[in-house]
Amino acid sequence: MKAAARRAVGRSLGGARVPRGLPRRAARRELAGVPRAPHLLRLSWKPTADAARVSGVYPFDVPAVRALDALDLDAPVVCFVGENGSGKSTLLEAIAVAAELPTLGAADAVDDATLAGPRALAAVLRLAWSVRTRRGFFLRAEDFFGHLRRRALTTARVAREERERRARAPGDRDAWSADEPDADAEAAARLLPRVDARSHGESFLDLFATRMHDGLYLLDEPEAPLSPRRQLALLAIVDRAVRRGAQCVIATHSPILLAYPGARIYAFDDPPVREVPYAELPHVTLTRAFLEAPERFLKHL
Known about the structure:
This protein starts with a helix and ends with a helix. The strands form 2 sheets. A 7-stranded mixed sheet has the order 4-6-7-8-3-9-10, sandwiched between helices. The protein has a 3-stranded antiparallel sheet with strand order 2-1-5, with helices on one face. The protein is built from 13 helices and 10 strands. Helix content is 44%, strand content 14%. The chain has 301 residues and is of the alpha/beta class. The protein is globular and about 70 Å long. The relative contact order is 0.16.
């Protein structure tokens, strides 16, 4: 890709640059602004779901989950929005388990003790795909520090194993152990300040900038550590990834992220879950009303 073309695309994305080394077909697609068909097309119930749906146990007692029929997800960017506890994150977590995506967090979604409920939901969900993919990741903003700790632990373990490999005598297979969790944890604790040397928001945004390419990305409240300006930068990163063939499903409260052009927005507040235009979202109308006349709200304090 020529430098002039790369700069042109960068300007269209608010300064984000198209990295060198993209495959020629992907580069042509990105310059043309023509995204691929979304990976994930539709979510519905398996025929075996009836018993679980009437069980009355979490997460099937969540009103939005209980009233769920099917959701069309065939858009490059799909947003779930609703009040806290409305079920948007629960459904996103269940999709992550069903899609078998890598988890950027303290534990994989299939093993995370806090996701037992979403795993039960995932077991009775059916996902329809255009192209089945396991590229991408699932990320909960609240567990980003867990991802950094896990990364530091992996780095410490690999470094220890390499040192022991170099130190052992030729042919001596018993001179080292591949499993020393205490030593690895101590080394990881020393590494963590270097892994997390930048601000939370900067590290968070760097993760997206370096890891989002083609694939499926499930993001739970990614705006949490980001300033409004950084949220705009995240929009540019999402747009660049979409041009490479990515699909993003985002649970969010952010009017900025919800404004992505062409995003399909599902509201969870008044079941059943339904598609709602951006301008009619309570998150948008309330924020706009507050910014226009904050004194109307603050006088009630």
